[in-house]
Amino acid sequence: MLTPEILHALHNLPLAAKQAAEGFLHGQHQSRRHGTGMEFSQYRPYQPGDDLRRLDWRLAARSDRYYLRESEVDTSLTVHLLLDATASMNHRDDNGLRKLDYARLLLAALAYIATQQGDAVGLTILHPAGLQHLPPRADARQLARLYHALETTEATGTFPDAGTLAPLTARRQRALTVCVSDLYEQDSEIESLLKRLRTTSGEVLLLHVLARNELEFTFRGAITFEDLETGQRLQLDADQQRTTWQQQLQAWLETTAQQARRRGFDYHQLSTADPLDRAMREFMRRRMLLS
């Protein structure tokens, strides 16, 4: 299985996304259901109560039996990808991968999968100075647009204010919103945005990305930590503080997960060391439930 480090080392986001997604999609079938769409699928015998308008009378005349024409309709969705590109996403793991690098790979792979499923895919990158927004489309060039936006994005500053975020929730549009963030916030601003998106768009899949060195606190000796968004610094002895750090982190993670699920978000915690297939599996599971 291709690890995030190997995919990142390709220095080619379209190729990395395709490699990760196609390995996952192997054996997957396009999401379709039987219905009354335009693409003919099969016949089935008439049963009492069926709509007589769907009977194939020519076949009935030839065979003296009654059959209904069934069709297949695509169960495509609108998928809205949301990237937290604030400065805390620049935190680098021991494997050299930033949280932003992992998020890019993940969202690129999800965009590839959604495109293969026939979905209209859009992307919003959250910057303090404004929103970089690509409206959902299902045309052939959309994937290249998404890749370019992800490749050229850098993480800076703090989370946008409510006024900057207002256009995202200005109108109702049914969609599956996939947010990738480390959920570092000053005053519940990320939660507030996702609550509004849950109301206006429907489903929210929240992928909470943390570096493994944060989760396992792999630091040693005297060390200075700097808040990448505020510039505040903290000096401590990592060996002495390891147990306290991990206890407080676990308490925060448990509270975060509980609150997210209470708000109706489909919440999953990820590490920058995790293969992408776990998140892709959750995306496909949620997508199938909506189809």
Automatic annotation (TrEMBL):
Coiled-coil ranges per UniProt: none
Residue ranges constituting the DUF58 domain according to the UniProt record: 42-247
Organism domain of life: Bacteria
InterPro entries: DUF58, vWFA_dom_sf
Pfam families assigned to the protein according to its UniProt record, in alphabetical order: DUF58
Name listed for the protein in its UniProt record: DUF58 domain-containing protein
Organism the protein comes from: Hymenobacter volaticus
